[in-house]
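Side project, low priority. Logging it here so it doesn't get lost.
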Amino acid sequence: MRCSSNPAERLNEILLRAKDFGKKDLTVSDMWADVFEIDREDKSRILSCIANVIMLTENVKKDIEGLRKGNRDSLVRGILKLQHIFIRMDLSAKPGSFINQIDELMLNTVEGCSLVLDVAFDYKQLEQEQLDTVKVKINNIIQQVLDSVIPDEMKNFIVLRLNEIDFAIINYKISGLEGLKAAINKCAGEIFLDDTICREVNKNNEKVKVIVEKVLSILRNINTVVTFSCNTIPIMSKRITDIFLK
């Protein structure tokens, strides 16, 4: 798979995975847990993912409605039908109650949306290999933070923020590149603004400065890769992090 900016392409991949996992003897709730590779007992996260998928269908509908040409009306009707299927979904039922409604016509409609939007917009994407590399970098820097000698409270703060990026990578099927980029910038911003980290950096605490520089360096590196794929201007530059750590 790849991490695409095209919301309809992401929606299509999600539905295909649901059709595949829906063949198993489980509940609709468990099916979605498997689709998004999360714990079947984590009901709040499952509900959050489903809510985000419904929001994804709304984003697709709005993008299609914004087009001036083609058979957008039939595509919009197809997405509206899909939204109604999600709204009526029973999480405790067998998957067939959901996936049997996702027929070839529905899948063709979503794929049609993907093709139309690809023509209309210059979408970017990260290939799976790049996505895997980003995940490895995040996991490595999390381990470096845990192994460091900085205060435990600071460790927990930084690791919690890095875990949000890790979840954005897992959740890329819904949020795409924009969600990953937002998580990276949010993590960097919260590190910049944390009073404890700022205080230790200003006191020239070398142990803290070294680990923070490693974290920001990794974030800057990942941000550059994702930014290039998003075709936007980088927010986090080396000059800014150098000033912060000066």
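Brief comment: Strands lie at 2-4, 125-127.
Revisit when time allows.
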